[in-house]
Design a protein that fits this description.
about 200 residues; mainly alpha; 2 domains; two-stranded antiparallel ribbon; globular
Length: about 200
C-alpha cells in the first residue's frame, strides 16, 4: 500500500516534546515514547507501559485517517490505536499463553516486533500485515514451518482469534511462507528479514 502521510501524522512536523521518556512503573527504567504510541514495553524488564500523554493528533477525528494511516483509530480497541496494536497485543498475549511468558520464542518474536515497528514507521508497508507476520514467524515447530497456505495451524489460529482481517491474514500467511521458503519479495518481506536479522 502506498500512502502519503498528511502533515498531522508526519513526524517531520512534530515538536521536540512530541518524543519524551516515561519511567517504568515496575523497574524505573526510562521508556522513550512518541506522542502517538499507545503503549511500549520497558527495555529493561519487559513490562507493558501505557503512554500517559497519548495523542493521535488529527487522526482521532479525521474521516481520512484510514487512508492516511492504513487503519482507523476510531475502529480499534480503546487506548490501543497505533499500527494495529490492539491486534498485536492480542497476538502477544496468545503467544505467551501458548509458549509461556519467558520462552525464547516469545522473546525473539518481541525483539523482532520492536525492530519491525521502527522499520514500518519509515516505510509504505502495511503494518496490519507485516506486524502479525513478524510476531508469528516462529509460532510453530520447524517440522511444520512450511505449509501450503503459508502459515501453520498455530499461527493461523492465533491471527484469527486476535481479529486479524481476512485479507491481512492471507497476506501475512503469504509473507510467512515467503520468508520460510526463501522466496523473493517486496518491501514487506524486506522489513521482516531485517527485523529478524539482528
Amino acid at each position: 500500500m502506498n500512502r502519503t502521510m498528511c502533515p498531522g501524522q508526519d513526524t517531520r512536523y512534530w515538536r521536540p516534546d512530541d518524543i519524551f521518556t516515561v519511567p517504568c512503573g515496575s523497574c524505573g527504567a526510562a521508556i522513550e515514547f512518541f506522542k502517538d504510541d499507545a503503549a511500549r514495553r520497558c527495555p529493561a524488564c519487559g513490562t507493558r507501559v501505557r503512554n500517559p500523554r497519548l495523542s493521535m493528533g488529527c487522526a482521532q477525528w479525521c474521516r481520512h485517517a484510514k487512508e492516511c494511516l492504513g487503519y482507523d483509530p476510531r475502529e480499534t480497541d480503546a487506548g490501543d490505536a497505533r499500527n494495529g496494536h490492539s491486534v498485536a497485543e492480542a497476538i502477544i498475549d496468545a503467544m505467551k499463553r501458548e509458549f509461556g511468558p519467558v520462552s525464547g520464542t516469545v522473546e525473539r518474536s518481541l525483539a523482532a516486533y520492536d525492530r519491525a515497528r521502527a522499520l514500518v514507521e519509515g516505510n509504505t508497508v502495511d503494518p496490519a500485515v507485516v506486524l502479525p507476520a513478524v510476531l508469528l514467524l516462529l509460532a510453530d515447530p520447524p517440522a511444520q514451518r512450511v505449509a501450503p497456505d503459508g502459515a501453520t495451524a498455530t499461527a493461523r489460529r492465533i491471527m484469527e482469534e486476535a481479529g486479524v482481517e481476512r485479507g491481512a491474514l492471507a497476506d501475512a500467511c503469504d509473507l510467512i511462507r515467503a520468508y520460510r521458503t526463501g522466496a523473493e519479495g517486496g518491501a514487506e518481506l524486506r522489513v521482516i528479514r531485517e527485523a529478524y536479522a539482528a
